[in-house]
Amino acid sequence: MTVTYRNKYQNYYQDKGGQHQPPGTILPVLVDVNSGAGNEIEEYSHQGYLYCDGRELNIRDYPILYKAVRNTYGGNTTYSPGQASVAGGARKLFWINDKAFFNFYRDPGIAALSKMPYPYGSSVRFVAQTTTFTGNISASSPNVTDIPSTDINKMNVGDVVELMGNNGTVTLPVNTTVLSKDAANFSIALSNSFTGSGSQISAQFGVGVGFGSIGPGVFAFNNYYLTKEPTENVTAQVGANEFCYEIVFPEPGQTNGVDPATLPQFTVDFTTGVHPNITLFKSFNTRDVPRSIGTFFLPDYRDKVVVGYGAVDGLGSATVEDGLSNTVGQIGGSWYIAQNQLLNGGIFFDIGNVKTTGYTGIQADISTFITGSVSTTVGPIDDHIFSRPIEHYHNILSSEPDESLAVEFGGSPSDKYGVIYTKSRSNVIPFEPSVSGGVALGHSHGLSATMLNDGNMATYGNTDGIGLDDGGDPKKWNVTSAPSINITSITYDAPNDKCIVATAEPHGYNPGDWITIQGATPGEYNGSFLVLNSGLSTQGFEYDPTSDSQPNPPGTSPAGGNPIVKLASGTFEEVTSTPQPRFYAINQQTVVGGKATVIVNPGTGVTFQEEERTTPGTITLNPVPASSGEVTQIDLTIMAPGGGGGDSDNAGTDAGFAYATFTVDGTTYTITSNGGDGGGSGDSGGAGGSGGAFSYPISLDNEDWFVISNNQTGADGDTGGTTGTELSEVNGGGDTGTTPKPLTTGGDGRANSFNDTVDLGSQTFTAFNDTWTNPALVPGETGRSIILQVAGAGGGNGNPNANSGCEAGSTNPPGSTANPSDGSAIGGTGTNGALITATLTSVPNTITMQIGRAGEAGENVRGGYADGTGMENDSGGASSVGGNGPAVGGNSGLGAWGNGATGGAGGGATGVYFNGGNVFVGAGGGGGGGGSGGGYNGGGTTDGCYAGGDGQGAGTNLHALTSAMDFVNGADGTQGGCTAGGGGGGGGGCGPNGAANGGTGGTAGVGHNGNGGGSGGSRGDSGYRSDMCTATWSANGASPGSDGYVSISATASVTLWGNNGGGGGQGASASVTIVGKNIAVTAGLQSPGNGGGVAQDGANGYIKVRYAGSEGGGTTPGNPSIPQGKYYLCDPAGVPSGSAYDGDIWQTSTNDDMVETVPGPGSTASDKFAINAGAGAPSYGGIVTKYLPWIGDSSANNLREYYVGPFNLTNVNNMRFTVIRGNGSNGGAIPEEDLMVYWQVDGSNTTTLLNTIVPASTTSNDWDFYNIALPEGNNIRQNNVYLFLRQNRTAGQDDNNNDAEDNYGLAGIHLFYDEETNQVFTPASGSLIGGIDQIDTTITPTDASMLAGDGKFTMSSSTPITTSVIASPENNIPLITRYHRVKYLIKAI
Questions:
Q1: Which among 689, 1021, 1107, 1234 is least surrounded, fewest beta carbons within 10 Å?
Q2: 707-723 per-position pLDDT tens digit
Q3: What is the average per-residue pLDDT within 1036-1056?
Q4: Which tens digits make up the pLDDT trace of 510-522?
Q5: What is the distance between the alpha carbons of residues 1063 and 1091, in angstroms, rounded to a whole number?
Q6: What is the phi/psi pair of residue 320, to 5°?
Q7: Which of 326-335, 528-537, 559-568, 825-834 has the lowest mean pLDDT?
Q8: CB 732 within 8 A of CB 748
């Protein structure tokens, strides 16, 4: 609100209105009538001052005041915006030229035109302020339940949750947020669901979980990043009401230093994403105003008085609060004395004397006990030298040898004790110590409060040094030790974690002895160990390898080296510890003793009925008639079918299940062996099918008539997914390799085959001689296709030019309409070579080839006008030469005079040979074109201009042969007369052996008769071996003038195999016996899983129902039941866990109904108490499964009672009974009598009441703890104590004649212990032991067997009761009036 000052100031002092005091000055003023009027703050009456009321102020609003007081009274010099929309919230992160920039939202509270929220130079810090919590989850659900109340109360909607750990394979998307929370039910709903499997998680929550949408990898937690004014043009990146700051990263080499160019660079919009958890900070500087960051507190002097320094009223007077020294700024004092601080009310109040009356004749028994102890020290032993030896005696023994026997002369001694003695007489040699001067030898003694482990240990002996101390502090003394025994073997039993020792001679050790082993390898066998009860024999024993000095078990077995063993040297030391509490539980192992048993005599065993099946269907068997005999058991065999295996493309199907259904005492039960799952297809990874599991109602665990003798979960099928073969099989679950396979086996997975073609490559050959090698076989190859294209060479073209007046544009004769001089009178065109496309029917290793060469082209070099008469060779011309090849093309004929020209030669044939031997394809060469004719002959005769004829086709295009083929050269073209062109050469050919397969030569032209051009030669024949290939022919071989060629391409046909499918899972199997019931049973078997494609089906499964029993036999009364039970060790709170130990304490009870009892529903007055499962009491995770009831007849001595023990209560300080009291609707009836506990020492006839366990008046209706403390000195704290858990029921009183009434139940008994001191063996270091120079002991009354009987107390007037009176004020005592009429102001501006 706007501050306005009143015109009139009551109690406004002018000296407080000026600027005389510096900011931070504190002044007292009296409260005036305007103070606080209209809910206004008090300082409005005092301009420039603030009230010292402890409020929090912004530093930017009062910078000068803050400079004076700083954060003396508290405050926060940082600011943490929680979201993008708040003042100073982060809006955006972006990068320009490897520089990072943050946009922050405006701060409307800034007292300036620019609402820039922070000064440049501020530091930004990312804070991982998260809280961990635990909870329960379910897969595919977004809910977390059972969150501790302290955590859920801190959570807010929108908090980010990050998964930290779980007990399965749970995953959760990052940046999952809390959508809603139900604090009353301790649960939250998240924006994403969990995946995977698991039931419990640990996670953390917080605002953004640190980096928000930035994520890790860019910034570091708790690192300060400076800001500065941007050094880039950021205009395009900054929105309205936003301000940009450049981030300065620590340089490399500094803490968290980094080169920004190496960081991930991306843009983050916090207005739509998750805001980071950041804190901004900048040291105070007045130049930053009004953008200073943080807050501070004013001093709070409300209801306080500011006093001076030192004494209240001058030197020697009291100080405030009687302080020894008061300092400036000290805070303390109070204006009243609090009620709870009054140590003695008599200082302020006085109460008269109190008189007691009415106690004459009152008597009471007093339980007494003796307390206290006596501590004593024996030792240390002092050295003492006696003046003379202690009186003692020596005996001298003498002997003489038996001279009638030979002793050790020769190789066969006859007397093993004989040494070659000589019979003689002599004096006894005086014995003196070996030291000089006749100094007497001494000896030493040690003191031990406990029996020594080794009876051979001594501080005296015939060895120097024995009995001497080592001079250390504390001292240790040298002692003798036991003799060593050779060890023949040591083996380590790893499953039972014990070592088994065999000795070379009898060892004489007892259980509990400490022994030392030396010389064994590896060293883990060596050390001092405790001999176990198990495995003890004359020359053998067992020990715990980790019992003492060697903490690690042996790594190899058996031991090597030369080991020896002896009793360990050492002492027993006192160690104080608190034993773990014990819990004697009521469960399946509990038997109350002294109860009559019945022995069923075996009769004649018989199977009354049975049925089995291995195909889908059901079995229904009805109860056996009583006349047939007694059914003692029903045997059920339930083996589920296996899942089908998968192949490459198809998954196997899941199997059905096997089951049995029966009804006992009105309740119907179904037990099920589930079938195996199908294996996955190979293309999808080939996962093995999961094995089936056996399931049954958990309540059957509490039924004695239901016995599971075999329960086997099916094995998973093996995993496929690898490339298969024709023989590959992926085993189904349970496949042991035996034949036939087990009836529950999963089907084997297999692979599919498919056909494909592999391209082996193509090659084109043009060299005259060449070889193609067939590529090697490829995996899975079943066939090969080889295709050849064999091209014969092209024939040569006739002459390409005209002359002698036939050339184009010639003005010389013979140009005419019929034979124009247009240059068209040139040689004919040669023919293409043949093209044979062949597919081999036999596969060679190699193919060799000769490739035909092109025939030469014709020429026209001699002209009539230029050269006169003559043949072409007269002017340097020549016949065209046929192309080479296995069959050579024919040469052309020469041209004669004038325009008569040489024709083109024939092309050579191309041949291919199988493995370098027989030719199996031959392609004919092309025929040459004819030469031109006519024109001026140079001798006065002019003929017309005639073109040469084109090459001709073959006589037979393609010969199909089954015998040897032959190549034949092409025929030459003929030569003519004046102005006649030569004939073209024939192409080389291939065909039947001995036949004219070559192409015919062309005929020369005839001069002067109107047709001077020569005809073309013909293409050679082609042939192939039809017994080696198939072939087709075309005229598209090599073109005129081009060499032939051979192209070979090969492909392989292969059979490939896909990935193996997974094996099917094995079905579960179980063997169950229903004991002592003759009931109807229905069993069923469903179908096995089908194999996918070519994979194997699962096994069929199997069910069998058999009713067995006996005929006759009868029963015989047995011996009384023997007490049995177990106890468990507990944590300090009494929660049991771990192994069970024998605790046979349940001696007997007063009637046969009071025995271990299976719990019931707990809903009426008689249906038995319920025990709910759970980790806590009373079940403790299934440790307690039964209870002991107080029920039944109480006519014997008018009580119901359990007699339990013996207990060693010497060190027990508390007994806890877990008991439930009946209330009429929790399984038991309401009792009118208390449940008491009495005790008795074994051998005594005195029974003493200890205490009430449960008063009948208690209101607890559930299982509860009832503790009875046993203080030190209580007479019950003895060994061999028995307890009587008693309910007194006077006959005829209330409902005591009804045996079903007045019920309690007991789930177990806890014993809690005081600290106790035990003797713990400490092995000696070699032959040195310590702690034997004195004994310190404390003797208690119990140690001294001191007992005190009960006493009797009688009150009389001569022994009055003296009463002490204490006054305790109920209210605070005020000292002075509150300081409410003065206030303190602080100069603010």
A1: 1234
A2: 998 889 999 999 999 99
A3: 94
A4: 888 888 888 998 8
A5: 9
A6: -60, 130
A7: 326-335
A8: yes
Whether residue 1178 has a cis bond before it, omega within 30° of 0: yes
Helix (H) or strand (E) holding 667: strand 667-674
Q: What is the rounded CA–CA span in Å between residue 927 and residue 793?
A: 9
Amino acid in the structure at residue 210: G
Spatial separation of the C-alpha atoms in residues 1087 and 1110, rounded to whole Å: 36
Angle, vertex CA 990, rays to CA 988 and CA 993, nearest 5:
125
Pairwise CA distance, residues 42 & 35, whole Å: 5
1232-1266 core/surface letters (b: 16 or more CB in 10 A; e: else): bbbbbbbbbbeeeeeeeebbebbeeebeeeebeeb
> CA–CA separation, 268 vs 100, rounded Å?
11
552 DSSP assignment = S
User: How many residues would you count in the chain?
Assistant: 1389
Q: How far apart are CA 795 and CA 447, in angstroms?
A: 130
Q: Concatenated DSSP letters for 10-60? A: TT--GGGTSS-SPTT-EEEEE--TTTTGGG--GGGGSTTEEE-B--EEETT
**Averaged pLDDT for residues 408-419:** 48
Nearest CA-CA partner of 1204 in 1286, 1142, 1304, 1305: 1286
Strands 1115-1117 and 598-600: antiparallel
Structure token digits, residue 850: 């000769």
Tokens representing residue 99 in the block: 């520089």
1373 burial (CB, 10 Å; 0-12 / 13-18 / 19+) is middle
Regarding beta strands 1022-1025 and 958-961, do their DSSP bridges make them parallel or antiparallel, or are they unpaired?
Answer: parallel
Provide the 3-class DSSP secondary structure of residue 214.
helix
Q: What is the CA radius of gyration of the chain?
A: 59
Q: What is the pLDDT of residue 654?
A: 96
Token duo for residue 81: 């915006």
Dist. CA 367–CA 1274, nearest whole Å: 9
User: Amino acid letter at 1121?
Assistant: S
In whole angstroms, what is the distance from residue 1105 CA to residue 1102 CA? 10
DSSP 409-437: SSS--S-TT---------PPPPP--SSGG
CA distances from 635 to 457, 600, 787, 1162 (A): 65, 19, 73, 32
Residue 832: which of 805, 773, 792 has the closest Cα?
792
Tokens of 170: 């749970």
For residues 102 and 94, what is the distance between their CA atoms, to the nearest angstrom?
7
**Beta strand residue intervals within 962-1039, DSSP E:** 965-968, 989-992, 1022-1025, 1029-1034
Give the angle subtended at the CA of 1143 by the CAs of 1142 and 1145, to the nearest 5°: 150
Judge whether 1086 and 658 are in contact, CB under 8 Å. Answer: yes
Tokens of 1187: 């209870």
Locus of tokens 């139900």: 182
* Helices and strands in the chain, H and E counts: 3, 74
d(CA 143, CA 355): 69
Here the tokens at position 1370 are 């109920």
